[in-house]
Design goal:
It contains 16 helices and no strands. The protein is an all-alpha fold.
Length: 296
């Protein structure tokens, strides 16, 4: 029994049976896929090739595939001699701390606004939404003053990782995103847990968080990528080169490093964002993660 074509189909079932149309559409899809692969993966593949190519070959034959062999020593030289390894671990520490602070603030804030729902929840949510319209550059100077002279603390956070971690937690976008996701969780489960004697902390740790893995993956991707690529704020608050991340140190070492070694350093700096996206791509792309959080 043949399937009737749907009214919204671009190509009807009758036309699809024609070999000419199948070959034409299939060829177009193949060409589009190849073009997308070249545009999307081309720069990354060229970076990987240049990272293990001698500098002279990259300059004279940038598109050739190892005309005089590979230079695997670029990676070890970038890691050890240029101290990319140290800056890499600095970036990892900054990213992990920023991720943890953002997850804690976003989940607890979303839980309070969505599940506990105090009387002033709508007011807080409105204020959070209002802060999204304030450009980040406007807050740069006040935030820097707060980091240099923290209220109630007679100690500056300059040249401390706390200067990166604490401001990272003040993300209204993450709180609103998690709140919208929590709003779509079944309320019956919360009521049943309360009837069984679960308090706010048990409800949060053992009921809400296990059901929130998709949105936690989305927030994790946003948090790690934002911390990994951040340049201006670490440049302002981390003046000691020994604790600066890759985003700050790479422009400084470019002028005094061979091109091949510098490309190897860029490849090392790109590993974590690529691997992180591959790990969390299901949560990031799946509709139940982001779509469920913003619908309604």
């Amino acid at each position: 029994m043949s399937k009737e074509p749907t009214p919204t189909a671009l190509i009807s079932a009758t036309d699809w049976r024609k070999r000419r149309i199948r070959w034409g559409v299939g060829s177009a899809q193949t060409l589009l896929l190849v073009a997308l692969v070249i545009v999307g993966l081309g720069p990354l593949l060229w970076l990987a090739k240049s990272a293990i190519t001698p500098t002279a070959d990259t300059i004279s034959h940038p598109m050739s595939l190892f005309p005089h062999g590979a230079a695997w020593g670029n990676l070890s030289e970038a890691w050890s001699n240029v101290h990319v390894g140290r800056y890499f671990w600095n970036t990892v520490v900054l990213a992990i701390g920023s991720w943890f602070v953002q997850i804690v603030v976003a989940t607890t804030g979303g839980f309070a606004l969505s599940v506990l729902r105090p009387k002033y929840a709508k007011v807080i949510t409105g204020l959070l939404l209002a802060t999204l319209f304030v450009p980040a550059v406007v807050l740069l100077v006040p935030l820097y003053v707060e980091i240099v002279h923290p209220p109630l603390i007679n100690h500056s956070f300059i040249d401390s990782y706390w200067a990166i971690w604490l401001p990272a937690g003040a993300s209204a976008f993450n709180v609103v995103l998690v709140t919208r996701f929590f709003d779509n969780l079944p309320r019956e489960i919360f009521e049943a847990a309360r009837v069984d004697g679960a308090g706010p902390w048990k409800l949060f740790l053992f009921i809400v968080l296990p059901m929130s893995r998709p949105i936690l993956g989305v927030v994790s991707v946003f948090a790690v990528l934002a911390s990994w690529k951040d340049f201006l704020w670490p440049l302002l608050v981390l003046t000691n080169p020994d604790i600066q991340p890759l985003s700050v140190r790479l422009p400084n070492i470019q002028a005094q490093t061979e091109l091949g070694v510098f490309m190897a350093a860029l490849l090392i700096a790109s590993i974590v964002p690529i691997v992180g996206f591959l790990i969390f791509q299901r949560s990031f792309l799946r509709g139940s993660g982001l779509g469920g959080a913003i619908k309604g």
